[in-house]
């Protein structure tokens, strides 16, 4: 190969590299759009007149499920952006309230838990009624599953309980196949599968710790986590896995969310520091008001604070693909937040009254880095190109 061909190849390579760097990444463009059009307008879609505990969208986003202290699970059709209740299920064996719910991966069933020895499974569709009790046989008189979820293959149900244990129920054999003793020092409030394999489990408890378990090496009588994540200063309330067995986010009673990388676990010193911080915590969600917040995962900064409920916001669910957030509250309402176009002169720093009856949001003024500013310019320049390629309608 001669020098001229080397020059041509090098030039061509530079052109391809330059062109590739200017090609818009679909996920990046979508992230940009979501960041620019965060939900800011609240609409009440249901008045239950009882404390509403649970609320979540199905995987398809066409169905929304709520559970309230009146012992009813209500299922809404949300396929056209509106909430139409099409089924109400009277929960069984309820102590105090339904505590958690989950959709099956195929979207045909729901499960719920309460202060009861059983998880209950119900069908969503069809003229028949399926309402089965799935016994966990905990052996404790006062028992509750605080968090539960399906495995991705629909064969197992994972639950975390007030006895500090994890439970796995096998749907094919209709039996509990795991009771993991002493998973946490206190209530287990959150559980999740790390990925589709169902081998790796996440659990979070009132001890402020997130534990990672590998079922392939797990001894039920002497469980040892393969890693622990410490850093919260109060109990864990929710865990969401990215599904890649690497990243997960946690929500805590300390009013923070944290993003974790499984490739680096916490040290024993960090674990002890977390336990001490939790023991000194005095905050209580039942009477200390905290607003709903939306964070920018690139900067870690809060970009929106949503106010409007008159009591504790118990659950928050973001629509799988629409820019819509639904909140359930102890004030007896279910609220939907959508984006409503504002006056351009006020869109950067819009704010609302601190009055909780006000349904408008409070947008925190933010300052973006130069890197993000450059990204924004590239995204804007490429929007036309993206549309030409059929990415947006």
From TrEMBL:
Residues 1-23, 342-366 are annotated as: Disordered. One of its GO terms (biological process) is proteasome-mediated ubiquitin-dependent protein catabolic process. The keyword Repeat applies. The keyword Repeat applies. Residues 1-19 have a biased composition (Basic and acidic residues). WD repeats lie at residues 181-214, 229-270, 306-338. Residues 343-361 have a biased composition (Acidic residues). GO terms for cellular component: Cul4-RING E3 ubiquitin ligase complex. This is Uncharacterized protein. SMART domains: WD40. Pfam families: WD40. Keywords: Repeat, WD repeat.
């Amino acid at each position: 190969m001669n020098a001229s061909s080397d020059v041509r190849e090098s030039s061509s390579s530079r052109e391809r590299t330059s062109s590739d760097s200017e090609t818009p990444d679909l996920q990046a463009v979508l992230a940009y759009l979501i960041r620019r059009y965060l939900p800011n307008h609240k609409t009440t879609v249901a008045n239950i007149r009882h404390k509403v505990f649970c609320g979540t969208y199905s995987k398809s986003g066409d169905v929304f499920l709520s559970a309230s202290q009146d012992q009813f699970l209500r299922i809404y059709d949300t396929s056209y952006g509106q909430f139409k209740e099409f089924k109400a299920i009277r929960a069984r064996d309820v102590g105090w309230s339904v505590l958690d719910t989950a959709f099956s991966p195929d979207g045909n069933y729901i499960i719920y838990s309460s202060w009861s020895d059983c998880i209950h499974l119900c069908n969503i569709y069809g003229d028949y009624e399926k309402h089965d009790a799935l016994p966990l046989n905990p052996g404790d008189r006062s028992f509750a599953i605080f968090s539960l979820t399906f495995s991705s293959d629909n064969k197992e149900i994972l639950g975390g309980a007030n006895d500090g244990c994890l439970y796995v129920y096998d749907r094919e054999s209709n039996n509990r196949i795991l009771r993991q003793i002493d998973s946490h020092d206190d209530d287990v409030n959150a559980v999740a599968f790390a990925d589709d394999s169902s081998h790796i489990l996440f659990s979070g408890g009132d001890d402020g710790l997130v534990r990672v378990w590998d079922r392939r090496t797990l001894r039920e009588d002497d469980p040892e986590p393969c890693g622990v994540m410490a850093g919260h200063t109060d109990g864990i309330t929710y865990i969401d896995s990215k599904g890649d067995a690497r990243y997960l986010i946690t929500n805590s009673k300390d009013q923070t969310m944290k993003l974790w990388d499984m490739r680096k676990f916490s040290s024993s010193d960090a674990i002890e520091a977390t336990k001490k911080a939790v023991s000194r915590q005095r905050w209580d969600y039942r009477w200390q008001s905290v607003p709903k917040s939306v964070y920018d995962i690139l900067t870690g900064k809060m970009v929106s604070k949503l106010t409007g409920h008159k009591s504790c916001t118990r659950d928050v669910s973001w629509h799988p693909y629409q820019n819509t957030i639904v909140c359930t509250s102890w004030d007896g309402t279910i609220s939907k937040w959508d984006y409503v176009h504002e006056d351009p002169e006020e869109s950067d720093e819009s704010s609302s009254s601190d009055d909780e009856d006000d349904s408008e949001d409070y947008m925190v003024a933010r300052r973006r880095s130069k890197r993000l500013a450059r990204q924004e310019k590239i995204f804007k320049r490429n929007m036309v190109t993206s549309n030409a390629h059929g990415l947006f309608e």
